[in-house]
Amino acid sequence: MTLTVAQLSESELLARIFPRLHAGSSMLLGPGDDAAIIAAPDSRTVISIDTQVQDKDFRLLWPNGSTSTGYDVGWKAAAQNLSDINAMGASATAIVLSLTLPGTTPVSWVEQLAEGLSAAIVALGAPQCSVAGGDLSGGSEIVVTVAVTGTLEGRDPVLRSGARAGDQIAVCGNMGFSAAGWALHESHVPAQDFTPGLARAAQLFARPEPPLAAGVLAARAGATAMMDISDGLLRDATRMATASGVGLDLDRAVLSRVAEELIEHAQLVGVDPLVWVLTGGEDHGLLSTFPANTPLPGGFIRIGSVWSLGAAEVAVTIDGQNFEGTVDGALGWDHFAV
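Above: the chain's sequence. Below: its structure in token form.
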């Protein structure tokens, strides 16, 4: 018989969660009091928050028969938040977690979530980051909210508003794989029939791999602007262009070479793989700009250039042209799209 959340008290459930949470070097006082205490030697704190909602951001059972395990959801909760801190050129120090759980939720699923959250922190390269505590509540669906803090370690933050005409545009991390993985989950191709390439995309959707070392490297190398690619390259590049008051022109040839890695996936579901690269979200790579003559840090590839934006011009172009291709009419992920 499966033990469910409704069969335990809050204290009993917390007793199963706390031992599974990662404690990094930044935590001075962890779970157990009304609030945690985290070291802040820089005197400034970088902070961000993200939420995953059942049947909006993940499904317990997908059309192709795959499941979202607690481990998957915990991993993604860590990855997307750590990536936001990374995009500022900072290093994560602490995470706090809020869980809304239906009473029918298996206790084992919640335990796996704690394990996935902690495993991602270590595996992705932020072992100094602690899971410092959180909150539990009941509800009709699973909701996972994570807030994360970080330190700049004396550096200036890298903002999305710093791109300047003449800069080069670069990215680091995966592009299009999470979108391909989502499409596979939503298809009717059973996971047991996936080739290794298809299985890799499905895994990157469930457990993204943001390049956490890259943010600090980019900041040290003189990045003028930077942001996490969470909602798709085109949508996020437009946000950077708008914040900076410039235009971003992307190189189709370079992006097409990136898309070649997704040809097998795209043929299976009938999508142009370049569309995934340009509009697919949740890979959590980094979009950055650097002065024209600056050598790019390891892992970054040049994908275009920044130019002065005229009053009637489009903020983001590809080889000087507006991009027309979309998936279901969308240029990227929108949390409120129907």
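The first helix runs from residue 10 to 17.
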